[in-house]
């Protein structure tokens, strides 16, 4: 089997969408000056999920307001959305509600959405507590996790988790239990010995 999925990255400008993608794709951090994405950018990565080959096509959207009408057109083709805020930028967190409204309006009804609080390596500049992210995610019924494109923390896990969810939905054996995304990421983080005090 060969399985293709579209994962779209959304969230305010500067939250680290391009860096998350580069970290996942190339295992590197884009240091230096911040170059805002114009419109939309695409990268592919093939990964193996439960012995099934999955081709992820990742769409990196521009967070800037002036590109919104361009990105709206892409929402309906996305199978999964990684919605990012920056834990050092309170405004990017406050805007998550507006992003979720936008997702509701433009994306497919059964799209997999996961909320990511990015830049947790910047411990001294943190403005949004993990608990606040968890609470918001619970309110909207979406899974949540904190990440760092800089250190790489939980980056592969975020992509793997949404890919697993979609693979399970499509190829579930009759007696197989439903895949629980939040439980899966919590367990993986515990196994890695991190991130949940
Ligand atoms: N400390 C830290 N900085 C990060 C992290 N991720 C991104 N950055 C920095 O944040 C800035 C913005 O990162 P981008 O990935 O370009 O942001 P974006 O969300 O793609 O922005 P737009 O393309 O405008 O929507 C850059 O200066 C990055 O170096 C992270 O995990 N930790």
Automatic annotation (TrEMBL):
EC number: 3.6.5.2
Cofactor section: Mg(2+)
Record carries keyword GTP-binding: yes
GO MF annotation, one: G protein activity
Reaction catalysed by this enzyme: GTP + H2O = GDP + phosphate + H(+)
Keywords from the named record: GTP-binding, Hydrolase, Lipoprotein, Magnesium, Metal-binding, Nucleotide-binding, Prenylation, Protein transport, Transport
One Gene Ontology term from the biological process aspect of the record: protein transport
One Pfam family recorded for the sequence: Ras
Enzyme class: hydrolase
Keyword S-adenosyl-L-methionine: no
NCBIfam families noted in UniProt: small_GTP
Family membership noted in the UniProt record: Belongs to the small GTPase superfamily. Rab family.
UniProt xrefs under PANTHER family: PTHR47978
Protein name (Swiss-Prot/TrEMBL): small monomeric GTPase
Biological source species: Gasterosteus aculeatus aculeatus
Organism placement in taxonomy: Eukaryota, Metazoa, Chordata, Craniata, Vertebrata
